[in-house]
Amino acid sequence: MTPDNLIPALRDIVGAAHVLTGDACIEFETDWRQRVRGKAYCVVRPACTAEVAKVMRACAQAGVSIVPQGGNTGLVEGSVPNADGEQIILSLRRMQAVRAIDLANMTVTVEAGCVLQSLQEAVHEAGLLFPLSLGAEGSCTIGGNLATNAGGTQVVRYGNARELCLGLEVVLADGQVWEGLQGLRKDNTGYDLRNLFIGSEGTLGIITAATLRLYPQPAAQLTAWAAVPSLEAATALLALSHRHLSSALTGFEVMNQGALKLVDAHYPHLRVPMWRETMWCVLLEASDSESEAHARARFEHLLQTAMEDDIVTDAIIAENIRQAHDLWHIRESITLAQAAEGLNIKHDVSVPISRIPEFVAQTDAQLQALAPGVRLINFGHLGDGNLHYNMQAPAGADAAAFIAAHEAAISDAVYQAVHRFGGSISAEHGIGALKRDKLPHYKTPVALQLMRTIKQALDPQCLLNPGRVLAAEPTQ
Ligand code: FAD
Ligand code: MLT
Ligand code: ZN
């Protein structure tokens, strides 16, 4: 097999209609943020695990590298190829089947290309809950969620994708299939292979299916929106919410005025509450196993106590599911409002929750000195210590020119601050190509060497998403 006869070989494996070339590849070649435009050798769309395995074997023989792609909603430039036209995009989107729901084991086994929302709906119909939830759920896939160890808005209660996964099926770089789909909650038979692949961003293997943990549906779910006078107050409200609601606290999101102002500007029909009067708003969700009345009484007591303690200045509890949905929609629209406003800078960081207010106060001041007028769009999953500490160019400025002039210095300042505060430069989006060259500054040499050793062992030809997470040199 050589690169020249690879395309006919791929056509034999998946059918000619599922090997795309030329302009047919365009929709797969640009990342969601429109920051990178790659060029694919071709896009190949297998229908089953056996086809993925054959594709991998053919690519390994030809020495051609593969970029796995699910919904292409990743935010770190990990799911699109280089510009050289030599990489194949392996799209998992045709592999969408929900293979089985095991009600007694409370698990679902699903193919990697299944869209997250479709899985949520299938599980809901079966009377259970798959709690992973994020703004891109209408188009991101389970394979992408696991490959990035996605977080989202329910992590405070249910954990991130890793915690929700009990088993994987993975096609390795040489085309072998690791069948690890047992839905076991206990299995201490050696190294944890599953957790090696979760979060590996397509650099160690192709996830083709997963067995995932399910939960009972709550009897009631309530959403509240609160104005808080400061970020200190928001963290105090989080601690109070944990005490009052315990495991019923299923969401705790924070949004600064800059973020909500953008949503108001681009989507005025969403009628963002309270944003003009306060610098910070919080979105809380409680899921109750008893009843709506029980949930409401607990929520009201929490918010009343918070007001007496002066950590909440104003609050509303959604009256019905429609209102709750509208409040969540405002929160989920921040990323879209940022995109609509223009090119922007993202930092998906985590810091110990107790240190977040000090981190933000110091770093805000530093950035305003570094790039006067920069708009700080700060929001995220405060319940997990995860901020989307994002930036927009000053109002009226040329965003592309601003980013070219300031992004490097701004990001270095943010990541150095994150490091000083004992945090992580990627809380939930991953490393991709965007943060690859930052990683060596924030991981120890021992950690990096271990990562390279694992990469070499699993992908000695460096064919799986080269240049993502780690630099691209072949590892042998
Ligand atoms: P893709 O973008 O296609 O791929 C992402 C990475 O995974 C790439 O490196 C790719 O090569 C690899 N990959 C994809 N499929 C496979 C596979 N089957 N096997 C191996 N590797 C694979 N992320 C969060 O964590 N939390 C959020 O709250 C959140 N909110 C978002 C909101 C919006 C509006 C958007 C656009 C994105 C958001 N994201 C969030 C980021 C993104 O949705 C997640 O990273 C998601 O998990 C990516 O899934 P995907 O199917 O789109 O993956
Ligand atoms: C979100 O939580 O909305 C996304 O992860 C954040 C982002 O777009 O930066
Ligand atoms: Zn997020």
UniProtKB/TrEMBL annotation:
InterPro entries (UniProt xref): FAD-bd_oxidored_4_C, FAD-bd_PCMH, FAD-bd_PCMH-like_sf, FAD-bd_PCMH_sub1, FAD-bd_PCMH_sub2, FAD-linked_Oxase-like_C, FAD-oxidored/transferase_4, Oxid_FAD_bind_N
PROSITE patterns, sorted: FAD_PCMH (PS51387)
Membrane-crossing residue ranges in chain numbering: none
Keywords: FAD, Flavoprotein, Oxidoreductase
FAD-binding PCMH-type domain: residues covered: 36-217
EC numbers for this chain: 1.-.-.-
Gene Ontology terms, MF aspect: oxidoreductase activity
Signal peptide: none
Family designation: Belongs to the FAD-binding oxidoreductase/transferase type 4 family.
Protein name: FAD-linked oxidoreductase
Organism the protein comes from: Ralstonia flaminis
Source lineage: Bacteria, Pseudomonadati, Pseudomonadota, Betaproteobacteria, Burkholderiales
